[in-house]
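Exercise 7.
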Amino acid sequence: MIGAGVRKFVNALGQADQVASPSSKAVGRTVGLALMGVGPFLLLGMTHTEPVARANGVSIIHPWSSGTALVGDDLAVFATFENNAPRLDRLVAVETTAASGVVFERSAGHSASTRMDELGEIDLAPTATTSLKPDYQQIRLVGLRQKVEPGAVLPVEFIFARAGRLKAEIRIESPGQPAHNDHS
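Solution. The predicted structure, written as tokens, is:
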């Protein structure tokens, strides 16, 4: 009984209408449209590999800044840090050859025009995410040693009290790029 059903199915397949192969132009158009639709997402994935560095329970996610700055200017830098360890860690320093100094800052109030207060370090709560965001908390590179424009990358080394040293690059983005609501 089952064998007869299988034979009937195979015979039906053999008698099905044959479809001509698509032309190479049609295949090219289809592939081109697929790349146009998926390409930007593939590129975004290559430029936003997350996290950019990880060690001893701490991850650095997308360190970034935006705009243009001249030699001698200051530059605000933002990032997100994940502390997957069960203990508090602290970002105690940032080293870079791109600036003469680095300062940690937090907004003194709740408006964008509020001054920034200097911090000695940035606490990373256990099993939590800490995001540095514009007008709230930032790392400021003081006295840039080079001109900075969108598309550039600046090498930095983040130094944590427990996790140690993690190397990363700060990506300089265009001012009009969408906000980083997903991670910083």
